[in-house]
């Protein structure tokens, strides 16, 4: 296995700042926004986005929540039993503009599950998707509205996102499987 | 987790994972829409060879909240009571396509026999077998204790250093056995209090301390949790104790004993209670009593159990 | 003078050296080398050990009444494949063997089958109910010549009745074989009481329930100067009581089953009802104490307590399952594993505990004699070097409730010779009709 570094702290901060600007532009401001991170790293990224919003629009307190999708997944029989994470949505999402936030967009199945999970909580007006990395290989008709970095990858490669709050460092790497 | 037969099979991590998933399941109960789509298309059979309405409806609610189909198979009054064997019943359920079987049986080990038999491929969940174990009861008890003691910060925590005193008919209690193993795994200190007739002769091999005298046990140090077990009055006919009055006087949580406890001591009972025998009404209805929470938490813990048994690719399970 | 029958070449007699054995009719005609083989079938027995035909003092043949589990024919076929040439059939049939009629019927069925000598055991009390003495004298003087009496499966728990039985059988040199189990202490009991039963939530069977009865019975035997045999000892404490009684000169003999020499209570962990047995499997310490006691002679014999049950009696929850396990086919292998391989026993010791002493206790003169010129041609040839996983292929009886299936065991019975003819040849059972005809021939003289 060889790991190649794709992004580090400044890169991550730069793309999140760009995404924040794009969100504000498409939403025409910070009104009605709710950031819902998909555990675990999506929640951390959502919190960083919220902090960036505050620097751009002083006083804007955009609600951040965690939306666990485990119980909505369609692949619970393909892997060992998955741990669930707390869902914590501090405000009603009814009629709001929800930005779903995740670290890596791959098959699209997690996002599909997130849409279902969200539906059980309420009916937002608009739902958008923001991801740090889009690595391709979609299996469902799903596309991100805001992408930090497009990273074409092979199936047998692994994208690793590590964030300082959880992992002690900010780094995105791609692990290349060395064929035997 | 392929089956849940005994709490002794649970590692600390596995037990805490189950409790953490239960927390997430409990959160669903607070929403307007209490249902999750997780087990859509799965069939859960409640196979009850003994009457136990409360345990059955708890499992039924849990399965339904996860969108599983539920078949209730009460063995009483069915072909089973007319001599059909466990094997034939199991094969019938297998033919119906049961994905999980929740079994309550009067014989210790019946769930283990079912799990090892090859008669049925379903996940087996022990909902109480004879005088052996009742693992989901112990999980819900631990869950209840953890929530009371750690509140919102429960996630990821065990019950390290928590002192739990279990009082009553230990030798015949599946609740006591499941609790002893699970509480030990979670780091709690368990003390059993009962007359020697109601303790296993080999209780010294268990990871517990034992006291025959409730007043002595409570006098030494007040426990964080006192759990009273149901006493069956018929036991006096088998010379386990002279009569209910004497039992109640010596081993019951009377008003006087309850008042002597600190306000922080939790009072637990797996139900159904004999008020005035093993527990006074004042104790049972007090703010320290968790008895109704135990019932509510039962659904969350059973949802977590069903989820854990019914999902996952089986090859990877050890 | 009948013709030479078998020339067994190169067998090691017990712990002795390899030699040839020539049988003629139903006796051993010669032992030595360079024997005249004219007309005899030659058995190449190099590497095999010759033992006097094995005698089981404790077999449940189930007939009459429970033919779905075993019959006299199928049970004696199991005996033959296990190297036994005689079995004592327990009385808990239906009807109970408590009259001359029933014991004579069992005797006749055994004779007709021809695989082994069947000696019926008579019930001590009518219907095994522990209330009234059965017709012990009638059974003793019947054609079955009953000398061993037992309520096995149940204990003669009434002390007065036990005293009377011990006294009564003195008139025909009988022996009471007691199933030592205090009934009140073992109500609903499922397995040995201790660490494992406490954990599994199975009602415990205390050692004292066995030991208390044995202690009482040896004192009764001493008081009335009678002969007591104690069935299937299972605890270290029982060994101590027997040791004390023998030291005191009490006329008591004791048996242990193969399973109590090899298996311990932890086998119940999986609730696999094949390991449910009465008396129950005990602690590892008990197993070791029983081996020691068998080695030092405190325990006199090994007896199988072969207890066949149909599959539905075992494929169920532990509490609903029947007590008992089969043992005839595996006994010699288990004794080899637990006693010979551990260095506690020589093969002469094996002959003593599985043939010579049980025949003596049961008053069976035609069996249990050292292999010598003039001795009856009751011979078992075992290959001690064989070792394999025990499977149902090794079973010849009707039931498959063996606790050893899937377990690696040494030794294999290659030949069993009974009344001069082979019931097992090359580890294969000889066909029913051939054996019946051979037995008929022997009866006609």
From TrEMBL, chain A:
<keyword id="KW-0328">Glycosyltransferase</keyword>
<keyword id="KW-0805">Transcription regulation</keyword>
<keyword id="KW-0804">Transcription</keyword>
<dbReference type="InterPro" id="IPR023050">
    <property type="entry name" value="PyrR"/>
</dbReference>
<comment type="function">
    <text>Also displays a weak uracil phosphoribosyltransferase activity which is not physiologically significant.</text>
</comment>
<dbReference type="GO" id="GO:0004845">
    <property type="term" value="F:uracil phosphoribosyltransferase activity"/>
</dbReference>
<keyword id="KW-0808">Transferase</keyword>
<dbReference type="Pfam" id="PF00156">
    <property type="entry name" value="Pribosyltran"/>
</dbReference>
<dbReference type="GO" id="GO:0006355">
    <property type="term" value="P:regulation of DNA-templated transcription"/>
</dbReference>
<feature type="short sequence motif" description="PRPP-binding">
    <location>
        <begin position="98"/>
        <end position="110"/>
    </location>
</feature>
<dbReference type="InterPro" id="IPR050137">
    <property type="entry name" value="PyrR_bifunctional"/>
</dbReference>
<comment type="function">
    <text>Regulates the transcription of the pyrimidine nucleotide (pyr) operon in response to exogenous pyrimidines.</text>
</comment>
<comment type="similarity">
    <text>Belongs to the purine/pyrimidine phosphoribosyltransferase family. PyrR subfamily.</text>
</comment>
<dbReference type="InterPro" id="IPR029057">
    <property type="entry name" value="PRTase-like"/>
</dbReference>
<protein>
    <recommendedName>
        <fullName>Bifunctional protein PyrR</fullName>
        <ecNumber>2.4.2.9</ecNumber>
    </recommendedName>
</protein>
From TrEMBL, chain B:
<comment type="similarity">
    <text>Belongs to the aspartate/ornithine carbamoyltransferase superfamily. ATCase family.</text>
</comment>
<feature type="binding site">
    <location>
        <position position="55"/>
    </location>
    <ligand>
        <name>carbamoyl phosphate</name>
    </ligand>
</feature>
<feature type="binding site">
    <location>
        <position position="271"/>
    </location>
    <ligand>
        <name>carbamoyl phosphate</name>
    </ligand>
</feature>
<dbReference type="GO" id="GO:0005829">
    <property type="term" value="C:cytosol"/>
</dbReference>
<dbReference type="InterPro" id="IPR006132">
    <property type="entry name" value="Asp/Orn_carbamoyltranf_P-bd"/>
</dbReference>
<feature type="domain" description="Aspartate/ornithine carbamoyltransferase Asp/Orn-binding">
    <location>
        <begin position="160"/>
        <end position="308"/>
    </location>
</feature>
<feature type="binding site">
    <location>
        <position position="82"/>
    </location>
    <ligand>
        <name>L-aspartate</name>
    </ligand>
</feature>
<dbReference type="GO" id="GO:0016597">
    <property type="term" value="F:amino acid binding"/>
</dbReference>
<feature type="binding site">
    <location>
        <position position="134"/>
    </location>
    <ligand>
        <name>carbamoyl phosphate</name>
    </ligand>
</feature>
<dbReference type="GO" id="GO:0044205">
    <property type="term" value="P:'de novo' UMP biosynthetic process"/>
</dbReference>
<feature type="binding site">
    <location>
        <position position="174"/>
    </location>
    <ligand>
        <name>L-aspartate</name>
    </ligand>
</feature>
<dbReference type="InterPro" id="IPR006131">
    <property type="entry name" value="Asp_carbamoyltransf_Asp/Orn-bd"/>
</dbReference>
<dbReference type="GO" id="GO:0004070">
    <property type="term" value="F:aspartate carbamoyltransferase activity"/>
</dbReference>
<dbReference type="InterPro" id="IPR002082">
    <property type="entry name" value="Asp_carbamoyltransf"/>
</dbReference>
<dbReference type="GO" id="GO:0006207">
    <property type="term" value="P:'de novo' pyrimidine nucleobase biosynthetic process"/>
</dbReference>
TrEMBL record, chain C:
<dbReference type="InterPro" id="IPR011059">
    <property type="entry name" value="Metal-dep_hydrolase_composite"/>
</dbReference>
<feature type="binding site">
    <location>
        <position position="92"/>
    </location>
    <ligand>
        <name>substrate</name>
    </ligand>
</feature>
<feature type="binding site">
    <location>
        <position position="152"/>
    </location>
    <ligand>
        <name>Zn(2+) 2</name>
    </ligand>
</feature>
<dbReference type="InterPro" id="IPR024403">
    <property type="entry name" value="DHOase_cat"/>
</dbReference>
<protein>
    <recommendedName>
        <fullName>Dihydroorotase</fullName>
        <ecNumber>3.5.2.3</ecNumber>
    </recommendedName>
</protein>
<feature type="binding site">
    <location>
        <begin position="323"/>
        <end position="324"/>
    </location>
    <ligand>
        <name>substrate</name>
    </ligand>
</feature>
<comment type="pathway">
    <text>Pyrimidine metabolism; UMP biosynthesis via de novo pathway; (S)-dihydroorotate from bicarbonate: step 3/3.</text>
</comment>
<keyword id="KW-0665">Pyrimidine biosynthesis</keyword>
<feature type="binding site">
    <location>
        <position position="309"/>
    </location>
    <ligand>
        <name>substrate</name>
    </ligand>
</feature>
<feature type="active site">
    <location>
        <position position="305"/>
    </location>
</feature>
<dbReference type="InterPro" id="IPR032466">
    <property type="entry name" value="Metal_Hydrolase"/>
</dbReference>
<feature type="binding site">
    <location>
        <position position="152"/>
    </location>
    <ligand>
        <name>Zn(2+) 1</name>
    </ligand>
</feature>
<dbReference type="InterPro" id="IPR002195">
    <property type="entry name" value="Dihydroorotase_CS"/>
</dbReference>
<comment type="similarity">
    <text>Belongs to the metallo-dependent hydrolases superfamily. DHOase family. Class I DHOase subfamily.</text>
</comment>
<keyword id="KW-0479">Metal-binding</keyword>
């Amino acid at each position: 296995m060889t790991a190649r570094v794709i992004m580090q702290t400044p890169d991550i901060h730069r793309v999140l700042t760009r995404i924040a600007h794009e969100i504000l532009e498409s939403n025409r401001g910070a009104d009605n926004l709710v950031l819902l991170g998909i555990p675990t790293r999506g929640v951390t990224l959502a919190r960083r986005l919220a902090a960036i919003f505050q620097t751009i629009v002083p006083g804007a307190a955009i609600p951040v929540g965690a939306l666990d999708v485990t119980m909505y997944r369609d692949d619970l029989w393909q892997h060992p039993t998955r741990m669930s994470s707390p869902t914590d949505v501090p405000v009603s999402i009814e009629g709001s503009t929800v930005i779903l936030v995740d670290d890596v967009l791959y098959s699209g199945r997690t996002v599909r599950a997130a849409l279902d999970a969200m539906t059980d909580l309420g009916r937002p007006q608009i739902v958008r998707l923001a991801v740090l990395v889009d690595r391709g290989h979609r299996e469902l008709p799903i596309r991100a509205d805001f992408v930090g970095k497009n990273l074409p990858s092979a199936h047998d490669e692994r994208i690793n996102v590590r964030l300082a709050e959880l992992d002690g460092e900010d780094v995105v790497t791609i692990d290349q499987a060395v064929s035997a | 987790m392929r089956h849940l037969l005994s709490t002794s099979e649970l590692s600390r991590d596995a037990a805490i994972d189950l409790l953490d998933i239960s927390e997430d399941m409990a959160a669903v109960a607070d929403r307007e829409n209490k249902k999750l789509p997780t087990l859509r298309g799965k069939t859960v059979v409640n196979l009850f060879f003994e009457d136990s309405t409360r345990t059955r409806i708890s499992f039924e609610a849990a399965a339904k909240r996860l969108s599983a189909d539920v078949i209730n198979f009460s063995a009483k009054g069915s072909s089973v009571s007319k001599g059909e064997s466990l094997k034939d019943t199991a094969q019938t359920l297998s033919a119906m396509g049961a994905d999980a079987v929740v079994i309550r049986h009067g014989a210790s080990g019946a769930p283990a026999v079912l799990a090892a038999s090859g008669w049925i491929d379903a996940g087996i969940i022990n909902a109480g077998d004879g005088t052996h174990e009742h693992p989901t009861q112990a999980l819900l008890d631990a869950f209840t204790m953890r929530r009371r003691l750690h509140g919102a910060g429960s996630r990821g925590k065990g019950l390290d250093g928590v002192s739990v005193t279990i009082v009553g008919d230990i030798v015949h209690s599946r609740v006591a056995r499941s609790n002893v193993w699970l509480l030990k795994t979670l780091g709690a200190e368990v003390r059993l209090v009962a007359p020697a007739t109601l303790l296993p002769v080999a209780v010294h091999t268990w990871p517990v301390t034992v006291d025959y005298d409730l007043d002595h046990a409570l006098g030494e140090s007040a426990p964080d949790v006192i759990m009273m077990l149901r006493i069956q009055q018929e036991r006096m006919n088998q010379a386990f104790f002279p009569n209910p009055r004497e039992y109640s006087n010596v081993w019951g949580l009377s008003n006087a004993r309850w008042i002597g406890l600190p306000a922080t001591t939790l009072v637990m009972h797996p139900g159904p209670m004999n008020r005035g025998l093993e527990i006074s009404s004042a104790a049972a209805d007090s703010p320290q009593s968790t008895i109704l929470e135990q019932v509510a938490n039962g659904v969350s813990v059973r949802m977590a159990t069903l989820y854990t048994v019914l999902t996952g690719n089986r090859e990877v399970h050890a | 003078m009948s013709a030479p029958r078998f020339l067994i070449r190169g067998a090691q007699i017990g712990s002795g050296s390899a030699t040839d054995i020539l049988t003629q009719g139903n006796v051993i005609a010669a032992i030595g080398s360079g024997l005249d083989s004219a007309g005899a079938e030659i058995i190449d027995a190099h590497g095999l050990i010759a033992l006097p035909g094995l005698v089981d003092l404790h077999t449940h043949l189930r007939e009459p009444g429970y033919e779905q589990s075993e019959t006299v024919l199928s049970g004696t076929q199991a005996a033959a494949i296990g190297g036994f040439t005689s079995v004592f059939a327990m009385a808990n049939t239906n009807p109970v063997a408590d009259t001359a009629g029933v014991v004579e019927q069992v005797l006749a069925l055994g004779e007709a089958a021809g695989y082994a000598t069947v000696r019926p055991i008579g019930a001590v009390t009518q219907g095994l109910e522990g209330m009234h003495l059965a017709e012990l004298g009638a059974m003793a003087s019947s054609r079955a010549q009953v000398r061993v009496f037992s309520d096995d499966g149940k204990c003669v728990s009434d002390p007065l009745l036990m005293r009377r039985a011990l006294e009564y059988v003195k008139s025909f040199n009988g022996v009471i074989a007691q199933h030592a189990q205090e009934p009140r202490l073992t109500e609903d009991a499922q397995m040995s009481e201790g660490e494992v039963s406490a954990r599994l939530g199975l009602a415990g069977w205390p050692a004292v329930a066995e030991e208390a009865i044995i202690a009482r019975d040896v004192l009764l035997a001493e008081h009335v100067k009678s002969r007591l045999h104690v069935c299937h000892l299972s605890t270290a404490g029982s060994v101590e009581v027997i040791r004390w009684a023998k030291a005191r000169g009490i006329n008591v003999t004791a048996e242990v089953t193969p399973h109590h020499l090899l298996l311990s209570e932890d086998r119940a962990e999986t609730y696999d009802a094949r390991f449910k047995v009465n008396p129950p499997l005990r602690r590892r310490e008990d197993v070791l104490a029983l081996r020691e006691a068998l080695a030092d002679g405190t325990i006199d014999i090994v007896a199988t307590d072969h207890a066949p049950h149909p599959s539905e009696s075992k494929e169920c929850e532990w509490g609903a399952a029947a007590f008992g396990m089969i043992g005839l086919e595996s006994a010699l292998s288990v004794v080899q594993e637990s006693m010979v391989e551990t260095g506690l026993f020589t093969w002469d010791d094996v002959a003593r505990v599985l043939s010579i002493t049980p025949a003596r206790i049961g008053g069976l003169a035609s069996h249990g004699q050292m292999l010598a010129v003039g001795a009856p041609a009751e011979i078992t040839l075992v290959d001690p070097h064989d070792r394999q996983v025990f499977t149902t292929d090794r079973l010849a009886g009707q039931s498959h409730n063996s606790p050893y299936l899937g377990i690696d065991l040494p030794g294999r019975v290659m030949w069993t010779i009974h009344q001069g003819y082979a019931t097992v040849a090359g580890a294969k059972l000889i066909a029913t009709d051939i054996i019946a005809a051979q037995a008929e021939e022997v009866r006609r003289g």
